[in-house]
Design goal:
The protein is an all-beta fold. It has one domain (2-49). The chain contains no helices and 4 strands. Helix content is 0%, strand content 28%. It has strands at residues 2-4, 13-17, 23-26, 42-44. Strand 2 (13-17) and strand 3 (23-26) form a beta hairpin. The structure holds zinc ion. The site of zinc ion has 8 residues, from loops.
């Protein structure tokens, strides 16, 4: 499941750029920026699973 720039993060997110694998952190309430490295607007979450719930 990919995540696009321009959306507001509903919670703190750790994201990786789909294009260049650059890692960014987005805080809850922040708008997800374009990748600062390559300008891509698509990200994925490197880890998602049971351990992520709180
Ligand atoms: Zn990138």
């Amino acid at each position: 499941m990919s995540i696009e720039a321009g959306h507001r993060a509903e919670r703190d997110l750790e994201l990786r750029c789909e294009n260049c694998s650059n890692h960014i952190h987005v805080s809850e309430g922040d708008v997800i920026p374009k990748c600062p490295s390559c300008g891509s607007e698509r990200y994925y979450q490197p880890k998602s699973g049971p351990g992520d719930a709180r």
